[in-house]
Specification:
With 507 residues, the chain is of the alpha+beta class. It contains 12 helices and 19 strands. The chain starts with a helix and ends with a strand.
Length: 507
């Protein structure tokens, strides 16, 4: 058999296998797709150095690049399966079988999937081997394909056959996508309607930001709110299917459904959230008005037992994190179970139907989206997702600041310039921001009006910058008197440190 025909058989068999898996996953759960399960396995078991490189280099494109890379790798394996089977199908069947078993194992290891989810990778395995075997036999019965001859008629017939299989695979994949989306959460979210808090957050003052001078707007629009998580596919959790179970070191196990939460007196709170992966000067910080209920009220209904140290949260897709119990119960901090964000139900990508928000802690230990379970336990008993990957245990947010204007290597007219940016120290609050231009003295910047100590604070400064190259540096001091350190440290294990520095020139 010609090598190109052999490679084509492998690729078409792969398409048939993945199409079948996607179709069955539409019935048993989107994340049961073996392709997604393998991709999630790669994320969960990649060395930390590779994960950090991907986050820093690819930013929010890391997941699409992973899926593209996995797809390319599967195509290569499929071509190899065909090429080693130019005479007999057995070697290719073995390769296809090994890929199928890998898919079954990846789905089996998913904590958020039950036994029925294994139907998807099993279908992938059976269809993959079946399609490969059948196409191989058809190829050997087609003289021009088997002998590499120039008979265009029989060759076209084989192309029609493989094309039909590929088209069927595409239809199956689309059908699986459609069936899976028929029960998606967007329609459920649309039915929630307006969330009106019984206790609204104070209005945002007009001078809470300096957006006209280059800072972000005080409230981040939902579409611009940073998103960092491990979900390759956004979990589709409907309100009618959602519940929150609180158990572990409690007096009584309790479970709340969505209506029970929504029908409580809702509160609204303005909170700035920060990702521990935020490099010095990085973009992973945003602010929103969250609507929900106080987390401490739910925990108190369960009755937190003495000795509880960790609030161990699990999301509907199996992701886990642990927050200090004292932070979750502290009324001054205001930890929330949030169901709304900036005047609407939580967007799907930000945790609909419900998520945890604990001000003052980095998101990896506090911001569980699609939350389904809270367990009161100890630090020794359970370890969250990121703890086994080299990150710190409790993750308090560090006092930091950022320059937003001018931007790095920007060219400005010589003379009077405006330097502006943001500073944050949740939940302590920012007391002072200082700016230094070139080798000049530190100068205090003008600060925006305080909204609350769990939010960022904007600043700006006017300075004279003659023609030439300039360097501007910023540092912040929080309300406890701590001035952020100049010493540079990376994000691992508990957040970056250092002064943000920007180089620009004036003409």
């Amino acid at each position: 058999m010609g090598k190109w025909w052999a490679a084509l058989i492998g690729v078409v068999a792969l398409a048939a296998a993945l199409g079948a898996g996607q179709l069955v996953a539409g019935f048993v759960g989107t994340t049961a797709s073996p392709f997604l399960a393998v991709a999630n396995f790669v994320i969960d078991h990649s060395p930390q150095s590779i994960v950090k490189w991907a986050e820093k280099t690819l930013e929010t494109w890391d997941k699409p690049v992973l899926k593209l890379g996995l797809g390319v790798l599967l195509v290569v394996f499929a071509m190899v399966a065909g090429l080693v089977s130019r005479r007999k199908p057995r070697p290719g069947q073995l390769v296809v079988g090994l890929l199928g078993v890998a898919g079954i194992a990846a789905v089996y290891l998913r904590q958020d999937l039950g036994p029925i989810a294994l139907l998807a990778p099993v279908a992938t395995l059976l269809v993959g081997i079946g399609a490969f075997t059948w196409l191989h036999s058809v190829a050997l019965r087609t003289p021009s394909v088997a002998a590499g001859a120039e008979d265009g008629t029989t060759r076209r017939r084989f192309l029609v056959t493989t094309g039909g299989v590929a088209a069927g695979a595409g239809v199956a994949a689309l059908a699986g996508q459609f069936i899976g989306s028929a029960n998606d959460a967007e329609s459920s979210r649309a039915m929630v309607g307006k969330l009106t808090p019984a206790t609204a957050a104070p209005p945002i003052p007009a001078d809470a930001d300096f957006a006209k001078l280059g800072t972000p707007p005080f409230l981040t629009p939902n579409k611009d709110f940073y998103r960092i998580d491990t979900a390759l596919v956004i979990p589709q959790v409907r309100t009618e299917d959602w519940s929150l179970r609180i158990h572990g070191m409690v007096d009584r196990e309790v479970t709340f459904d969505y209506n029970e939460i929504r029908n409580r007196p809702l509160v609204e709170q303005t909170v700035t959230m920060t990702c521990v992966s935020n490099e010095v000067g990085g973009p992973y910080i945003s602010t929103a008005n969250f609507v929900g209920v106080w987390l401490r009220d739910l925990l108190n209904e369960a009755g937190v037992r003495q000795g509880s140290q960790q609030l161990f949260a699990t999301s509907s897709d199996g992701w886990t994190c642990g927050s200090p119990v004292e932070a979750a119960l502290d009324p001054k901090r205001g930890a929330m179970l949030a169901i709304g964000m900036n005047g609407e139900p939580l967007p799907l990508e930000h945790g609909f139907p419900a998520r945890i928000v604990v001000p003052g802690l980095y998101g990896y230990v506090s911001g569980t989206k699609w939350v389904a379970e809270l367990e009161l336990t100890t630090w020794a008993a359970r370890r969250g997702y990121w703890l086994d990957r080299g990150w710190g245990e409790q993750g308090p947010i560090k006092t930091m600041s950022r320059i937003d204007s001018p931007q790095g290597f920007q060219s400005l007219p010589a003379g009077r310039i405006t330097v502006s940016g943001i500073a944050w120290a949740q939940p302590t609050g920012i007391d002072k921001v200082e700016v230094r231009l070139d080798d000049g003295p530190w100068r205090a910047a003008e600060l925006s009006t305080v909204v609350n100590d769990s939010t960022w604070r904007m600043w700006h400064l006017q300075a004279d910058a003659p023609k030439g190259s300039h360097t501007v540096v910023v540092r912040a001091t929080d309300k406890l008197g701590y001035t952020q350190t100049e010493q540079r440290a990376g994000t691992v294990p508990d957040g970056a440190t250092g002064w943000h520095t920007v180089v620009f020139d004036t003409q």
